[in-house]
Amino acid sequence: MIRLADLQRCFAGVLPSIISTCSASGVPNVTYLSQIFRVDERRIALSCQFFNKTKQNVAENPFASVQVIDPVTLQTYDLDLRFDHSQTSGPLFDKMATRIQAIASHTGMLGVFKLLSADVYEVLAIRELEGSLGPAPADQDQDQHQDSEPAPLSLRSELRALSAVTERLRGATDLDGLLSTLLDALREELSFEHAMLLLPDETGKRLVSLASRGYGESGIGAEVRIGDGLIGTVAQTEHTIRLTNVAASLNYGRAIGRTAQDHGAHAPGAEIPLPGLPDAQSQMAIPLLAHGRLAGVLAVESKNPLGFEEWHETFLDVIGHQLAIAIENMMLRAEAEEAQAITRSAFPPKPTKAARVLRFCFYRNDDCVFVDDEYLIRNLPGRILWKILRSFVDGARAEFSNRELRLDPSLGLPPIKDNLESRLILLRKRLEQKCPELRLVPKCRGQFRLETSCTLELVEKDSG
Predict the structure, then answer these.
(1) Which residue from 276, 209, 253 is spatially nearest to 109, judged by alpha carbons?
(2) In this structure, are residues 446 and 403 in contact, taking their beta carbons and an 8 Å threshold?
(3) Which of 142, 163, 246, 375 is deepest in the core (most CB within 10 A)?
(4) Taking the CB of residue 348, how many other CB atoms lie within 10 A of it?
(5) How far apart are CA 172 and CA 327, in angstroms?
(6) Residues of 27-37 as b/e, b for ≥16 C-beta within 10 angstroms?
(7) SS3 label, residue 119
(8) What is the set of domains in the chain, with CATH numbers?
């Protein structure tokens, strides 16, 4: 007996699926499907975006047939369906709609390329199409489709990985360590080689990558506007999204855009360049939610079209919830401890005569900092760095506290949820990448020291 759960790879979208319907008068219609979602063991949901003829046929004759292909074995299956109902809201609709929204955002088709309804069908029968492949090997397990539960070893492996990742998170003592520990654990326990963690900036309109694996220097400081692409859509909707066969999905979105433009309906906007692998074939992003608030987004991707399975999504949802709570608790604890800290001043060490000269330029109009004519950082981290450098050079100060930064009105931190800890992590990592001679060294909770082995030259300009 073939179960819907056995066909999960067929629903991943790696190979296109086909739906066939027929009108009451016997006129057939065949078209491709962009998304199939398994609702339970007897129902599936099909995405409806442009299927006017399919909708008309189903209204007259509720029976349909869908053909799907396993992308690993290339075995073809026919599903006999009967239309049940359509959904235009609710959890099922939202889950399917956010996937399409992410693709539409990336290809400049927001508002045009969108889900109209999630059409739910009852599965009446599943047939393995004979003759689509050669004969099966003689030693093939003939009982592979028996109605039985997955092997317990698989479940034990997933639970062991969950336990291992959770245990490692418990050992983190600060925000930077927490983010790095998680990405290391995901790489070692689940072989996720490409991952990044992004937290909201001070404006709440962008996400900034504070920790990454597999992207080199480009992974730290990468920005995503909320609502843009996969990561931005996850932040905006607060729904997990898992994409497979990404290249085909984007090409489909582009084709819809060209068709709409040819008919004068819509001119696609510019595609949005987003951080990540240029040749990613699988992507997944998880919203980190704590007490109903967005604490960040965890994003992973792979060059394998089937890099992420359904259980990976559930696994990361569980980890993401723990991570969000841990992020919020660490920030609250840091603020409480900073309130008791005493700020001390110290004279900076004098550089040696042969020290390198670093020329920092601060552009007042857009809060950008360049070092030796190369972009370093901007926005709130840029303002923080400039305050520290000015105090160091003009006021002979080398020690600073998070609390004094929070109380400085010139920095423009929001009164609530300022994410100062994450801004300092980003600043510290960008300095390590671009000018390692300049270091922000933590002293104790909420205090740090500026150390340098170079001479600093400071310049302020208006941009443009």
Answers:
(1) 253
(2) yes
(3) 246
(4) 18
(5) 11
(6) eebeeebbbbb
(7) strand
(8) 4-128 (2.30.110.10), 153-245+281-336 (3.30.450.40), 356-461 (1.10.10)
CA distance 242 to 283: 6
Question: For residue 420, how many other CB atoms are within 10 A of its CB?
Answer: 24
Report d(CA 417, CA 410) in Å as an integer.
17
Asked if 108 contacts 51 with a C-beta cutoff of 8 angstroms, the reply is no
Return the C-alpha torsion angle 223, 229, 230, 231, nearest 10.
20
Question: What is the SS3 string spanning the chain?
Answer: CCCHHHHHHHHHCCCCEEEEEECCCCCEEEEEECCEEECCCCEEEEEECCCHHHHHHHHHCCEEEEEEECCCCCCEEEEEEEEEEEECCCHHHHHHHHHHHHHHHHCCCCCCCCCCEEEEEEEEEEEECCCCCCCCCCCCCCCCCCCCCCCHHHHHHHHHHHHHHHHHHHCCCCHHHHHHHHHHHHHHHHCCCEEEEEEECCCCCEEEEEEEECCHHHHCCCEEECCCHHHHHHHHHCCCEEEECHHHHHHHHHHHHHHHHHCCCCCCCCCCCCCCCCCCCEEEEEEEEECCEEEEEEEEEECCCCCCCHHHHHHHHHHHHHHHHHHHHHHHHHHHHHCCCCCCCCCCCCCCCCCEEEEEEEECCCCEEEECCEEEECHHHHHHHHHHHHHHHHCCCCEEEHHHHHHCHHHCCCCCCCCHHHHHHHHHHHHHHHCCCEEEEEEECCEEEEEECEEEEEEEECCC
Tokens linked to 322: 């723990």
Model confidence, pTM: 0.76
- Using an 8 Å Cβ cutoff, are 186 and 168 in contact? no
Instruction: Give dist(CA 188, CA 180) in Å, integer.
Output: 12
Q: Where are the beta strands (DSSP E) in 245-340?
A: 282-290, 293-302
Q: Does position 286 have pLDDT exceeding 50, yes or no? A: yes
Which of 178, 381, 193, 447 is CA-nearest to residue 296? 178
DSSP state of 453: S
For 404-462, the pLDDT digits (tens) are 998 899 998 887 777 888 999 999 999 999 999 999 998 887 889 999 988 999 999 98
Provide the strand spans (E) within 117-183.
117-128
Q: What is the secondary structure of 76-102 as a DSSP string? A: EEEEEEEEEEEESSSHHHHHHHHHHHH
Residue 9 tokens, joined? 């790879």
Q: What is the pLDDT of residues 154-173, one digit of tens each?
A: 555 788 888 989 999 988 98
